[in-house]
Amino acid sequence: MLTKKSRIKDVYANPIGRDIIDRVLLQMNISKKAVTNPIVGNLKLKVLPKLPKSQLDEGFLDTLLTLLNTEHEAAKGNDEAILKAWWKEAVFYQIYPRSFKDSNGDGIGDLQGIISKLDYIKELGIDAIWLSPIYDSPNDDNGYDIRDYHKIMAEFGTMEDFDRLLTEVHNRDMRLIMDLVVNHTSDEHMWYQKAIHEPDSKYGDYYIFKDQPNNWTSFFSGSAWNYVEERGQYALHLFSKKQMDLNWENETLRHEIHDMVKWWLEKGVDGFRLDVINYISKRSGLPDGNESIGKLMEYHGVEHYFYGPRLHEYLHDMKEKVFIPYNAFSVGETPGTGMEMSKLLTADYRKELDMVFSFDHLETPGHTRFDDYQYDLNYLKSYMINWMENYGNHCQPSLFYENHDNPRMISKINSDRHYRNVLGKLLAVIQLTLRGTPFIYQGQEIGMINQNFRSTSDLRDVESLNLYDELCNTMNKEEAFAKILAGSRDHARTPMQWNNQQYAGFSTGKPWIMMDEDYKNCNVEAQLQDENSILRFFQKLIALRKEHRVIYYGEVLFINQKEKDLFTYYRKDGTETLYIEMNLSSSNKKRAKYPEGIRLLSNYAEDSSSFLRPYEASIWKYN
Ligand code: NOJ
User: Fold this and answer.
1) Is this prediction's pTM over 0.90?
2) In this entry, which stretches build a coiled coil (predicted)?
């Protein structure tokens, strides 16, 4: 048991403690050496708030200790071989249905549109598709606010369309996973309507109501509480005002969710991506969030639910009762969890989730999504080395840089279009040659980049628009817009660029969100005809991955770890060795050594001898 008398090094030795300290250091852009240094390591926790310039209050320690002392387990060591599974060998492709392909000219992507592009996805080499939500929704948060779990969103089509889609996916020997959003529902969901109008019915306790709000803030700006006149109480929404948090403490609700999931599994879907699933268990009594933590993390209250007291229990229960009987796959979206927590959520012997998406590699230390800065790939390198070396054989890493919640990765790293092609390919090499399951986000395979939004009227996302309003209280409109522009999720939500015709071949009608002129040069049709395109490179790389199974389960051995801008590693098993070498910068970089063997694939046509060119990335096969 850790107490205020424990030392920093004791906290760092505790798995959850390490995750929390690492997170804080990342947020503050402080090196880990600050903690591993013996003088700091020997400090007792109780002195922390008293240190000069300390921004931590007394309550901070109590909160930290509660969190640390609720987790009693540590993940097992790494002594066993990796268990094989289809999803450890698969390449996933995420579809954001609203922006993928429209079949009926209303400017909104739909299920028939997706069906028409399944051959394209198959030819890319994809094994499984993750569909962002397609359920009935008033679209306050584009489908992440579900009104009816058993109905398809009218703009997307019908249940017949869905059944057809599933059959067509399976006919092509691919799998389909759905998005499961069960931390919250829309306020228009029948359960919520009953909860407020019939508080004495069983639904009365399905959501989180409180007589007085606490200080928790919403991820989409402002307080996380709505006043509900019908009940004379406040209701919790960690996201938009129309996304009401479900009360997982209620067992009947949990059963209801299990039944709903089974209903989809009965239809034959192959698994789920579970939206913000680490938020489902909230600390009982819903205490105020600590002020220091709130300031540091930019949201108040997170420490009371991002790794809640009953999280493991809920996940384990759902895995045993729902996922295992159907042999279904699960990947959890778990913002804020570090490596140790991720291990406890995904280690195969614990039976909670198969994998998680952890997000600490999407911004470099000291930055958040809404900062305008240039991402340094050396950070991605150190992050990947850490995960590859320490995540262990019981857990499978997910490999991704993009999704519908983040700007395009190429734009973050280098917006000079001159490098777009080589950079897009370099990112692909990292993603497809490390150990883990790659998730490619639609458009990433053609190197889509951030859009030229000109004003807020071009934006659609509730998060961006709310934040803009909030920022306008403290800065002028131009500054506020510039900030939104750096991190807006809408960058990833503009229509998929299929060809150079009007609306990029996405729709015959005006799309629901604007698109700039980029599609004229960057589109699927043009790239299919160009052997040198990013798309062709992805196809070759995915095919290469399937041919060299060492990439699935082989060892990863990093070399030249300390050499800035050089990222090099071997993938090895008893039968073969691959060598991957990359230059992470836009300048030439001296090679550590000239590789032996044959060059299987590279983003430069001819090999050079003593140096690597800007963002050069090659895969070699050794004899
Ligand atoms: C995470 C989803 O990816 C995001 O798009 C959504 O806004 C929130 N969860 C709330 O559901």
Assistant:
1) yes
2) none
